[in-house]
Amino acid sequence: MNHKKSPSILVALASFTIIAAAIAATVIYFQPRTVSASSARSEQSDPISASAKITTPTSLSALQTQYPVVQNVKGVKMEVIGTSNEGAYFTVDVCYDLPDNKVDFMLGGQYPDYITLSTANETIPVYEIAKIGDFYKDSNGNYIKRCDHLRFPISPDSKLENVTLTISRVATTPAEILDCAKGQKKLDEAKQGIKVKCSDGSDHIGGFQIIEKPKEMDDITADAIAADAFIDIVEGPWVFKLK
User: Quick one: how far is CA 41 from the chain centroid?
Assistant: First the structure.
């Protein structure tokens, strides 16, 4: 099999810092963009419920759906507990189980394309993910659930009809210093033909470099496959028909 070298380093320590902050408390943002519907086709123990903790603004544009809307895929329960229209953004509040009680599981992992809102005329990747409140725990102190506020940019031309939220996966975030042997073992077992070299962080750069890949495989595909070898993933999709 022919291979070629790829100079790309996928993740820097700065990226880990951003993701870690998102896990702990705050907000992560993605580049806003939309895809037309046609082109998309072609290409804490807590006595107060999560619903009671979230104040959803009343709006004539908010979807008139009975909440929560629940989906259970591969043992991971996920529920939409409310939606609202906040001017230039359509928002969806989602609560979900934490697989294996791991707090670093996030909706979509690192990639906005794994969380999309489809309307009558476009498909919109998520722009912002903000954690709502604290993690939920069971009586033994295990982390069991997280709730997020998802924001999607909309325009005056957006048609909020046939609205569907699709979350394709939940995934952990990569460690600051990668376990290169473990990641390479997963790649070898999957027979992907990809070899990686990992940084030890001493040069203030984390992540990995692809040093071998099949000749016919493009860099973006190789990066995505290799990145998945360093995280835990539960593949969905969780599909919510909101209107």
Answer: 21
CA dist 16 and 3 (Å) reads 29
Cα 119 to chain centroid distance, Å, stands at 20
Confidence of residue 204 (pLDDT cuts 50, 70, 90): low
Residue 34's domain comprises 25-50+62-172+233-241
Distance CA 75, CA 61 (A): 33
Rounded Cα distance between 31 and 124, Å, is 11
Task: Please report, rounded to a whole number, the percentage of residues in the chain having pLDDT higher than 70.
Answer: 71
Overall number of domains in the chain: 1
- The pLDDT value recorded for residue 160 is 84
- 43 burial class (0-12, 13-18, 19+ CB within 10 angstroms)? exposed
Q: Which of 109-118, 161-170, 216-225 comes out lowest in average pLDDT? A: 109-118
**Which amino acid is it at 29?**
Y
**Domain CATH code at residue 116:** 2.60.40
This prediction's pTM: 0.73
Task: Please give the full DSSP string across 152-214, using - where no structure is assigned.
Answer: EE--TT---SS-EEEEEEEEPPPPSS--HHHHHHHHHHTT---EEEE--STTS--SEEEEE-B
Q: Which residue has the tokens 């040093």?
A: 211
Residue 11 structure tokens: 């993740």
